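Hey, I was hoping to borrow your eyes for a little while. I've dropped the whole record in just underneath, so have a look:

——
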Amino acid sequence: MKKFILFGFSGLLILVFATLGYGQALPKLDFRASGLMDVLSVWSKNVAEPPWNTSPVIFGPHTHLLPTGPAFDKTHAYMESRARLRFDAVMGKELQGTIYFEVDSLRWGEVAGTGAQRNQAGQWGADRAAVEVKNAFITFAVPVIPIPMQVHAGILPFAFRSGYLLYNDGAGIQTEIKVDPVGIRLVWGKMMENQDWAADDDDVYGVDVNAKIGKLTVGGFGLNYNMNTYPVDLPTAVFPGTSTVDFKANFWWLGLYADGRVGPVDINFDLGYDTGKVEDSRNIAPRARDVKYSGWLTRLKVDYPWEKFNFGLIGMYSSGADTRKTSATGLPGELTSSGVTSSRVGGWVVPPWSEHGYGDSVVFYPIDFVRSTPGFSHSPATTVAGGYYGGSWFAKLYGSYRVAPWYKVTLAALYIGDTTQHGNSIGNARKAPFGASNLRDDKTIGWEFNLRNDFQIYKNLTWWAAGGALLPGDAMDYFNSSTRTNVSPKIPWAVVTKLTYVF
């Protein structure tokens, strides 16, 4: 039914455009180019980087950071870079075509000879086939309709409160309608097309409504992921009742938000709720039919600018899962730490392939000017996951001072807590007699302290340099399977820099 409505609406737009748009005179073509180039460095200890842990719902420790792992209490250092080039073919406000390319090196000095090309532009000798198509879409205004309406169709950026929920690129259609002071956005995305003749594809539907009230923008959204094939990257056909991997899922994310100025302060507020279900159709005894999900997150940021100073406060809370009811993967049929079949995920989760993050710290949460590392949590591509915030909460105080027009310094302190029940979000410490089901439930992840410097070298050239240290609490202790004792890591810390040229 959703597809019928969508295709009917799209057909109506095409008819209107075809019958009324032919006589529209458009300006001459204006061809524009823009982009960026950056160089990023990371130096850290006991902070997670890829390869990620594959447990998306209750993260657990990253394998290489365990006391028996190769990276425990060792210093990491690497560099990476990115380049983007965007071309826009613009014919006034009515019509535009966009092609956006991206080139990445995830580690300078990637190992050559593996056959990999994507994300490996930094191999010695270079000459990689590493150019990716990030976006390719058409934007046009619908003629004659008396209200402003713009349609984007192709490979698009999709964003719903990207600070904590979703940013992703993918194929689909997005319509924006403006009726002052109200804005409406309708979204459909094709996440996966499995077999053309079967109802086993994955679709994304979304609506976002907001209004400008004085200096404040308030809004709400609904986002639906209807995944008839789950996880979403299965390479082969899935046939119900016969395949050993046969799941489907349906998730909703609902949210309210507010951005802008209230009196003398600037605020950003978010409240999000997720609800959904992963179903199993396999004929396996005992048959685990489904796992139900429901979680929530809220975040409030308040800034008080005063002359060359800015003082701020951020609070965030996200629900955590219960390890006695939830397996690490969140899939039906999996066993929990207590040995029962997984039935419910009460922790906050984000959609598959989600890129997001407000950049609230340097060590535990990735800072905003880096891409995804360092940082302890993540979002696997194939399933829903806790993202950067799931299973944690924090309170942050910070202040910045603009020393000169080209230099700003910021100091910050955070208390970070753990909201996972009957276990911990990151650490895996155990109670005596140290059985797998005897997980410790601790509340303190730690205190984190950050120093950030922003340098505007030229108008289009910026250099960021930030450092942080996390004084780990009990929730960061790891279980050493060799000695059967709990071990505290040395203080996790990170120093990150980024040089960016925007043109």
Remarks:
- Residues 370 and 498 are 7 Å apart (CA to CA).
- The chain has a mean pLDDT of 87.
- The longest helix spans residues 2-20.
